[in-house]
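Researcher: Batch entry, complex prediction.
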Amino acid sequence: MYIYIFDSSLEGLLCAVFEWFERKPGKVSLQTAATYQPDAFTPSLHIYNDDKKADRVWKALQSRLSKEWTRRFYCAYLSELTEAYTALFEFSCYLFSSAEGVEKNYGNTHVLTLSQIARKVEREKHRMEAFIRFQHTADGIFYCGIDPDFNVIPLIMNHFKNRYADQQWIIYDIKRNYGLFYDLEKVEEIKIDFGTARTAVAVSKHVLSADEELYALLWKDYFRSANIPARKNTRLHVQHVPKRYWKYLTEKQL
Amino acid sequence: MSERIREKLNILADAAKYDVSCSSSGGNRKNDNKGLGDSHSSGICHTYTEDGRCVSLLKILLTNHCIFDCAYCVSRKSNDIERAAFTVEEVVSLTMNFYRRNYIEGLFLSSGIFKNADFTMERLLKVVKKLRLEERFNGYIHLKTIPGASEELIREAGMYADRMSINLEMPTESGLKLLAPDKSHQDVIKPLGDVNRQIIQFKEERKLIKSVPKFVPAGQSTQMVIGATPETDKDIMHTADTFYRNFSLKRVYYSGYVPISNDNRLPVLGSQPPLIRENRLYQTDWLMRFYGFHVNELLNDANPHLDIDIDPKLSWALRNMQCFPVDINVAAYKVILRVPGIGVGSAKKIVQARKFGKLRIDQLQKIGVAYNRAKHFIKCADSPYQMKDFQGTQIKSFILSESKSKYIKTPVNQLILF
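Model: Structure tokens for the complex:
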């Protein structure tokens, strides 16, 4: 048994796979540098990131996996979960040491875990596409702050870029402190220094554009009118819109 | 100004909410003119109302003035309600501004019939044309086809809309005649057929000439009100099946009737809408479209009604115990799909995974099979050996005793004393 310690980057993860095949140490427990606890009886190995090694593993993955599965792999990585890192590592080792097509073996725990985590991430991505509510600020930018469970910003970029091609927008991940800014030409990654002020999902009222309040109000009205009280089904409602997302939703603000 | 528009929105959104369809899927319009909006192939539900229905489109009527007097409709002529009408500009600016804030996927525009069908259709057409041509809007547009409007108008509207729909309203002609004497199914069938023919024609032409414009790319849908007239589930689903086959509809919607008037032809005010029945009908609809069931297998003269306490797939399985148990490790995909407790996702996973070794119970559970339900109908690598051959009714009682229905067993109108 060995402990591999990596820096929780995708590159590091791929290098860990490379090292495993170089050293063939048998069973390995993959841990991130941030959460690593030394163990008196298990030797450990720090994985140093190396572009070439990571590239080789990534190319090999792409040649073995279909586009759909490569996306799953990437999605599972974006979940930032420890069990996802382990599943990705074990999955890669299993994939490279078995015959063609084993990624479809859902009987294998790592394959199943990986695809289930990827699904969770895709769901979160879809929720962000649905629940983001832009606020129009006085300087003409549409802003929204989010704090998704997983790091889905790389996944939602294209969707918003294609959709809102004629307006400037910012989507900012408050939890991970980075965001996207679209300036009518291209999307850039940005970092905003909010200082000591705690960042909120919504921007404060005095920087909003003149008609923002009207449309927010109209939307709330619409949401209320679309409801049929005789069919009230709170359980279903909460199932579709879990309470942790209510803070994003204009129609759920009083 | 803002007060008036709020008032109008309240009236016209309220009147439009009984149209169930809110799907925004199937559109394939691309934002290639640097405009606003881009379709999402599977659609996005941006929020859900408190009754659990999705809100994906801004669903409004252009006006709720109507010359018809259909007993089941809130906007009927004889109903004493507030009337209002949007201007074209108002609808356009609402749609654009809601879309810009990511509130909606697009617009669902319907209308009461004022003056005549052509006049109404022309107004609807004006809205979509302004959105597409002047505002460069590429979001989803669902447009109601107004029965009786001229073919040219409908054809032109189809160039700009993603989906068009006309409501059948009642599952049978006799039901419709009872509640809406001025209407008939023929009024619906003709435009549905016209649009369907043109969809096919445009698709054929596109194969040869790339630049042929899109025509209703997300197809057509329709809606039936259930529980207002005494049709059986069999009548409803057979009608739905005919329409799916003849007009290649994308969806048929079933809308449980919510009592809105004192008319003695209809259920009394305050009675519960038939929510469970509606759910069972949708389940049947899904079985027909995605699970390879024929409508006759689920509903026939011997079983004209769906079971309320169990879902239609389970009740089909219990009636056809000769088809079970199915061996998960060898059976064909289509056969596995028919097992209660196994859905499309798990069935696909099973078929892929069993190539690598025989599947066991624990693997099936992890894959996502509802094993407690499926175990009565399947065999896998480590299924316990069983001597007793259970009857359908026995299995039903096993399943019912260990499952908790999401529906309350007693009707809500009934007070519980102790």
